[in-house]
């Protein structure tokens, strides 16, 4: 690691003040940032640890949606949404492993926007909102490509608002060593609309498969997608799978998610 | 920078560079070499310790992030003369071969039984709202963060089931 200073503010205001230092960076659970620092792929001058800020944690029910604090861990989300939003609970409960889920946070994941992260698929499918210290950003506008978001330098993800669907399911085809999705698909069914969020597949990061959303909107069954395939253009090709393979998996995982959600 | 850690019930003041991982702090600064460094990337689980009652990878966290936290390592669970129930179960069932992953396995399993007692569901649970039976599939899923390159898994599962069956941790 390169040298840095670390501060541990107790309030959001203190954290925002500390972030004004040049090359300062927020540090949440650290399950991605700390390995990144070890590889010398990041060089912050100041790390602002957010784990001591009580107001960033917790899950509350809002009119038809869940409001989840940015500092809430995957483990807490898996436990506390089991009854209210089982699709999200399953998603959170399969991120990494139990020790990682006890540290990693939803705010950290969304700020990092790894192209294979799980939450972005749920955010896109449900039409969720990212809440920062000074504004609210719709998921469609927030994710702007691999590791790129609408966040400004001095913004912290303080929470998210996720509409709770009538039914939902997340299916991921795991890369077996890392357990990150090679392709992950979140399907959310609301009264009058269906959302399909796809992660892991595209060079452009998470996206909505709008053709599938339309077909499922009138017929929410796996058969509605029987003759539908996703084009391979723009999909990721690497040693784990070709663009064609990932494109194929998108349709397979979407059908499985629909079957499991009905 | 100074960090106060409550380790195995004892308050220790650590003076270390902010870059020091909790694992390096335990092993190199505080002389607690029970926790092991396997991958140093949060993938193997050999460094698992219990912080404020929750199991975490000590290689994936900085010591200075834990000012005031309560940390339990394998040394704090039991002693050679008075093993904890989980440590004794690993000995009884020969739940290891080379032993390198064992401290992490034991810390993880100890905290895992606490999670089960609190009704946390896992991906292997049929019912997400609690009351799960600790089947082999449940144990495997819940211990998925702890790798054993000797593949002593069958005996590890036996040991955990034994400790769980006795209602002891």
Automatic annotation (TrEMBL), chain A:
Could you say which enzyme class this protein belongs to?
A: oxidoreductase
| One annotated GO molecular function | anaerobic carbon-monoxide dehydrogenase activity
Q: Where is the FAD-binding PCMH-type domain?
A: 1-167
Enzyme Commission number(s) from the entry: 1.2.7.4
InterPro entries, per the entry: CO_DH_flav_C, CO_DH_flav_C_dom_sf, Diverse_Substr_Oxidored, FAD-bd_PCMH, FAD-bd_PCMH-like_sf, FAD-bd_PCMH_sub1, FAD-bd_PCMH_sub2, Mopterin_DH_FAD-bd
Q: Which domain of life is it from?
A: Bacteria
Keywords for this entry?
FAD, Flavoprotein, Oxidoreductase
- Full protein name: Carbon-monoxide dehydrogenase medium subunit
Q: Record the organism.
A: Profundibacterium mesophilum KAUST100406-0324
Query: What are the leading ranks of the lineage?
Result: Bacteria, Pseudomonadati, Pseudomonadota, Alphaproteobacteria, Rhodobacterales
UniProtKB/TrEMBL annotation, chain B:
Single GO MF annotation: oxidoreductase activity, acting on the aldehyde or oxo group of donors
Name the Pfam families for this protein: Fer2 (PF00111), Fer2_2 (PF01799)
Indicate the segments forming the 2Fe-2S ferredoxin-type domain, all copies. Answer: 1-77
Q: Which domain of life is it from?
A: Bacteria
Gene Ontology cellular-component terms listed? periplasmic space
> Which keywords describe this protein according to UniProt?
2Fe-2S, Iron, Iron-sulfur, Metal-binding, Oxidoreductase
Check the record and name the InterPro entries matching this protein.
Answer: 2Fe-2S-bd (IPR002888), 2Fe-2S-bd_dom_sf (IPR036884), 2Fe-2S_ferredoxin-like_sf (IPR036010), 2Fe-2S_ferredoxin-type (IPR001041), 2Fe2S_fd_BS (IPR006058), Aldehyde_Oxdr_Iron-Sulfur (IPR052914), Beta-grasp_dom_sf (IPR012675)
Keyword NAD part of the UniProt annotation: no
Q: Which SUPFAM superfamilies does the UniProt record give?
A: 2Fe-2S ferredoxin-like, CO dehydrogenase ISP C-domain like
Q: What is this protein called?
A: Oxidoreductase with iron-sulfur subunit
């Amino acid at each position: 690691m390169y040298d840095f200073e670390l501060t541990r503010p107790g309030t959001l205001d203190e954290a925002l003040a500390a972030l004004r230092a040049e090359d300062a960076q927020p540090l949440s659970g650290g399950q991605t940032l700390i390995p990144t620092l070890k590889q010398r792929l990041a060089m912050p001058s100041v790390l602002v640890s957010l784990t001591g800020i009580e107001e960033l944690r917790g899950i509350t029910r809002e009119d038809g949606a869940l409001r989840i604090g940015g500092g809430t861990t995957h483990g807490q989300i898996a436990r506390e949404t089991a009854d209210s939003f089982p699709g999200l609970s399953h998603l959170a409960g399969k991120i990494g492993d139990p020790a990682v889920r006890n540290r990693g946070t939803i705010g950290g994941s969304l700020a990092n926007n790894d192209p294979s992260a799980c939450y972005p698929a749920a955010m896109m499918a449900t039409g969720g909102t990212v809440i920062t210290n000074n504004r609210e950003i719709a998921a469609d506008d927030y994710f702007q490509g691999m590791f790129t978001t609408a966040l400004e330098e001095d913004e912290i993800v303080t929470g998210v608002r996720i509409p709770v669907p009538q039914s939902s399911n997340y299916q991921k085809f795991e890369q077996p060593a890392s357990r990150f999705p090679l392709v992950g698909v979140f399907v959310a069914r609301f009264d009058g609309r269906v959302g399909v969020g796809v992660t892991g597949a595209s060079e452009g990061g998470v996206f909505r498969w709008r053709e599938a959303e339309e077909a499922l909107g009138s017929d929410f069954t796996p058969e509605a997608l029987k003759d539908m395939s996703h084009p391979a253009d723009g999909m990721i090709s690497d040693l784990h799978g070709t663009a064609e393979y990932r494109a194929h998996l998108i349709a397979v995982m979407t059908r499985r998610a629909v079957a499991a959600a009905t | 920078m100074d960090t106060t850690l409550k380790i195995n019930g004892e308050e220790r003041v650590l003076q270390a560079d902010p870059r020091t991982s909790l694992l390096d702090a335990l092993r190199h600064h505080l002389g607690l070499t029970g926790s092991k460094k396997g991958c140093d990337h949060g993938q193997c689980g050999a460094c698992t310790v219990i912080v404020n009652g929750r199991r975490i990878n000590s290689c994936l966290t900085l010591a200075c992030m834990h000012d005031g936290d309560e940390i339990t390592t394998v040394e704090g669970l039991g002693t050679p003369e008075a093993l904890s129930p989980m440590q004794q179960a690993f000995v009884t069932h020969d739940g290891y071969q080379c032993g390198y992953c064992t401290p992490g396995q034991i810390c993880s399993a100890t905290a895992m039984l606490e999670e089960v007692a609190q009704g946390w569901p896992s991906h292997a649970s049929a019912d997400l709202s609690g009351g799960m039976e600790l089947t082999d599939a449940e144990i495997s899923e819940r211990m998925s963060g702890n790798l054993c390159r000797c593949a002593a898994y069958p005996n590890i599962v036996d040991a955990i089931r034994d400790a769980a069956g006795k209602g002891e941790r």
